[in-house]
Each structure stands twice: as C-alpha cells, then as structure tokens.
Amino acid sequence: MPEEIDRWMRGELVLTDEGLLNYWQQEWVVCMNRIQLLEGTLKNMTASSADDTEKARRAAPATIAAYTQRLDTAKARERVIRDRGVQIDPTPRVFNAADYLDRFEDTHRPSKTTARKARS
Question: How far is residue 112's CA from residue 118's CA, in Å, rounded to a whole number?
Fold first, then answer.
C-alpha cells in the first residue's frame, strides 16, 4: 500500500495536491534534519583531538556501525522522498524548506485538524 494511503487511512493526510505537498515537504525536512544529526554524531564519534587520545574519543565499533546503518537508512528514505516529491510536483517546491516553513504555522496548529474533521 502506498505510504500516502496509509497516512490518509489513519487521518494524518488529506489526499489533495496541497495535502500531498505538505506531507512530502514535512517528510523531507524531517529526513534532512535526521541525516544532518546522524552525520554530525558520526563525525563526533570518530573524531580525535590533540587533547584526547583516540581511544577515549572514539565510540565503540558496534555503536559506529549502528549509526552508520541509521545514516544509510535515512539516505535511502531521502531518495524515496525525492522521487515521490518529483512525482507530486515537478518543480522543486517539495524540497523548498522556506516554502514549508512559511506554511508550517497554518498547517500545524494543535487546535486545527489538518486531515479529517474531528468527530463530535
């Protein structure tokens, strides 16, 4: 089942052009943030400095392997999002974080339902 249909069935997505754009923009921003975090974490785990011995600064090989696997998974997710984003909107709007942030407040208010209307 396509990811969008699953989210729609759970009430997390409106199946409109704008709803799909919002969803994939949000997924892209979250994914890019995760990639940056993982890259920074791996860099810190494997860095050595003049003040510390490499053994003291370096993380355990199993930890580095786990974070490397998470980074690979996040990069694979980014490729899926990029492919899907181009299908949704051939312009690079899906990958425009400024566009997403400009609309973030309107689409993510706790009191506003962005998918299905709340049942009373």
Answer: 9
